[in-house]
Design brief:
289 residues; alpha+beta; Ribosomal Protein S5, domain 2; 3 domains; four-stranded mixed sheet; two-stranded antiparallel ribbon; 8 helices; 6 strands; 62% helix
Length: 289
């Protein structure tokens, strides 16, 4: 099974001390890049959060955000407000505002974000750390499920495109035996029209040169080999995004060569169709982990 890198997960926990929410978004990226958004009072837990993410996700650009809403009604609060610091911030804001023509409004959230305004109770940090890591685990599991579901859809899309490419190659292989005979007939007709006789040896030489020029047997063989490898990689599953991307480059190269050697509309059309199919897969491969 392959995994997509595009997913979203959200989990929430309500306790006596308040509500904690964890949201994770992920999009495609060459490597694992994690951005954390934590309230100032939860910054101490950044490293264990990063380590947990790294253990379960290998590729993708992740945004992980925690939001904490304290329960004002409970006495067992995990955090308290440094009121003296908050008052000084308000006074400083008002003082600066008087120097401006149109001073911006300072919000409660702005004040709470300032380092030191919200103070944690050290004896309760273990409790919230456990809750945070449990939430993170649930969010990651939900994210992985979504990635797997998206990956299953991508896998089906890739297999369908591989079969369509195989069908185009079958048309080319069916068409090739007739190309030489038709070329021979056209060449003879051309000489007949100008009322010239062509030496049989010269005709054979011309046909050998023509056959060599339009020979695409190696391209067809390599295309079929790459298609087989794509199917094998999809069946194997795991971290296959980069390998699939490389295979798409190889398929595109061979399809280009097939088209450049073509002297027949059937072969040319098949080469164009294959390039379209390859590009469709190539775009989606960028989302595979």
């Amino acid at each position: 099974m392959i995994n997509s890198m595009t997913a979203f997960a959200r989990v929430e926990n309500q306790a006596e001390w308040g509500t904690l929410v964890c949201e994770i978004r992920s999009i495609n990226h060459r490597y694992l890049e994690t951005s954390l958004y934590l309230p100032e009072v939860l910054r101490a837990f950044e490293m264990p959060i990063r380590e947990n993410i790294k253990q379960q996700v290998k590729r993708g650009k992740l945004e992980c955000a925690f939001r904490y809403q304290p329960n004002v009604a409970t006495k067992n609060k995990l955090f308290s407000v440094n009121e003296s610091l908050a008052k000084e911030l308000v006074m400083a804001s008002e003082s600066i505002g008087r120097l401006m023509i149109e001073p911006p409004m300072i919000s409660v959230t702005d004040i709470l974000r300032y380092p030191g305004v919200i103070e944690s109770k050290d004896n309760d940090l273990t409790q919230i750390k456990e809750t945070m890591l449990e939430l993170l685990e649930k969010a990651l599991q939900e994210l992985i499920v979504v990635r797997q579901r998206e990956g299953k859809d991508l896998e089906q899309l890739f297999l369908t495109r591989m079969q369509l490419m195989q069908d185009e190659l079958a048309k080319v292989k069916q068409r090739l035996p007739n190309l030489l005979q038709e070329a021979r007939e056209r060449l003879l007709k051309r000489f007949k029209d100008v009322q010239l006789e062509m030496d049989s040896n010269r005709l054979e030489q011309e046909m050998v040169i023509f056959a060599q020029r339009i020979d695409v047997s190696e391209e067809i063989e390599r295309l079929e080999t790459h298609i087989t490898e794509v199917r094998r990689v999809l069946k194997q599953g795991g971290l296959v995004g980069r390998r699939l991307d490389f295979l798409m480059q190889e398929l595109n190269r061979e399809a280009n060569t097939l088209g450049s050697k073509s002297v027949d509309s059937v072969v040319t059309y098949a080469a164009v169709e294959m390039k379209v199919l390859i590009e469709q897969v190539r775009e989606q491969v960028q989302n595979v982990e």
